[in-house]
Design a protein that fits this description.
Distance between the termini of chain A: 45 Å
Oligomer: homodimer
Number of domains of chain A: 2
Structural class of chain A: mainly alpha
Number of strands of chain A: 0
CATH superfamily of the largest domain in chain A: Tetracycline Repressor, domain 2
Largest sheet of chain A: none
CATH class of the largest domain in chain A: Mainly Alpha
CATH architecture of the largest domain in chain A: Orthogonal Bundle
CATH topology of the largest domain in chain A: Tetracycline Repressor, domain 2
Shape of chain A: flat
DNA sequence: CCCCATTTCCGTAGGCCATACGGAAACAAT
DNA sequence: ATTGTTTCCGTATGGCCTACGGAAATGGGG
């Protein structure tokens, strides 16, 4: 399915929800059975367990023991709920400003990666028109402050920021993709690749792919760790090299 | 919606489709009204125009003037169709091995980016358990050959490969997200941000976000180009710095 | 105590989706 | 013309989001 995202909903309403500005206390009328926080928490729980595809309004309502349509009293729609979910889990990053600028950027990357690990459905949430809530904004401030401390020119800071942000979210997403698929399809990555052994037997052409063959013969793929370990170390390696490049470009 | 992907379908069947190994000519029986190629082409056309979310089996069948269920004679299911679509558009890259290893990696990045530009729905296709077809494999061979020429150790080549691949696909995905959203929601990125002017007026806290405020005041965000231009130059910048880092790490 | 404005709850229904099943239709060989 | 084989596709099931409108709960005023 396509990436989930907030749409044309009233920005003012969505922002008020993101920053938890209650519309104002209601002196009369029926008492709410559920709150926005409860809805978001339940939605996150469902998505954590069964993926974003399983996070339907009906499923969340069931989780809370209320009717499906009751949710729409508190939340404009599914897209806005996903925005709330994303900003909420981004707040879990708990960023502590310690060390030099490089340490802080790596800290940011690690914390963000941890969010994706804990909430694999974040892979399916687009971040180009992000939820402008505290979770996202605090993160932006943190990286920008770190990059600004590096000595880059202001204009360069913004360019480097987009590059770092893209790398972190992209790498975290692909790192998490595998476990998300394992969870939703019930098949592990290793098992998936194992079932495709046929490919190497019946389709791989040594003459068409000399570089891959050479690397294979050189033992480049004789790794002990699991697939997940390989991806993780590549994540660290890539960020390191990216920061090396940024640092080197300043001189 | 969650990322679309091929599932537990019979790998042998899917591989045969990807590499276009026809099951064997049928001497008797009713003549097919449509071919696999026609189905894939129609599906790509629909997804290009209306996004992967609109690419339903019914929609594709309608496009071809056949019944929905007829498609299932030629393709096991929707997941496998998406695999075929992805591998097909990846074949459009037309990679020419010219220049040094850096030029070739950048060439690969540019061609891959072009695929995402032409087919924004690729953002929604997971690449951790990729379609093992010619489109993907030829690309892998190309980058691996380039990286192997850089002088890195074989083990290092594979690590760098994952980092580069992650960056390229991640950056291309985020670069394309905006236009995909513009296409499916009918609202441009600039219009979207404009509607969120309220945020800066009512929610942005100068004291909470000093680094952002300082950058703003320093004119770091006074760019002439569009949002898309900014993202593109950050893409180039990021890849450059990543390759700088990889190159520097060899010495 | 009753009434009523106000607010929340939620059943129904419409219009999408993927795909299992099984029969109808087309075709080649006999 | 019959038969075997293959493709085509109508129907049905069970899911999804959410517009609509009425039922139920609540607190205040008479």
């Amino acid at each position: 399915m396509a990436a989930e995202r907030s749409g044309g909903g009233d920005p003012a309403r969505t922002l008020a929800l993101l920053w938890r500005r209650p519309p104002e206390p209601k002196p009369v009328g029926r008492k709410p059975k559920v709150s926005v926080d409860q809805i978001v928490t339940a939605a996150v729980a469902v998505a954590d367990r069964e993926g974003l595809g399983a996070m339907s309004m009906a499923r969340v309502a069931q989780e809370l023991g209320v009717g499906t349509m009751s949710l729409y009293t508190h939340v404009p729609g599914k897209a806005e709920l996903i925005d709330l979910m994303a900003d909420t889990v981004l707040q879990e990053r708990d960023l502590t400003p310690e060390g030099g600028w490089r340490e802080r950027v790596k800290h940011y990357a690690d914390r963000t990666r941890a969010v994706y690990q804990a909430h694999p459905w974040m892979r399916d949430v687009s971040m180009v028109r992000p939820p402008l809530g505290p979770g996202l904004m605090d993160g932006q401030e943190f990286v920008l402050a770190a990059l600004a401390d590096s000595g880059l020119e202001p204009r360069q800071v913004t360019v480097a920021h987009v590059a770092v942000e893209g790398f972190v979210h992209g790498a975290a997403a692909s790192e998490v993709d595998d476990q998300q698929l394992a969870a939703t399809t019930g098949e592990s990555g290793d098992s998936w690749w194992g079932a495709r052994q046929v490919f190497w037997d019946d389709y791989f052409d040594v003459e068409r792919y000399p570089a891959m063959t050479a690397l294979w013969n050189a033992g480049a793929y004789d790794t002990e760790g699991t697939l997940a370990d390989t991806i993780t170390s590549s994540f660290d390696y890539g960020l390191d090299k990216l920061l090396d490049g940024i640092e080197g470009g300043m001189r």
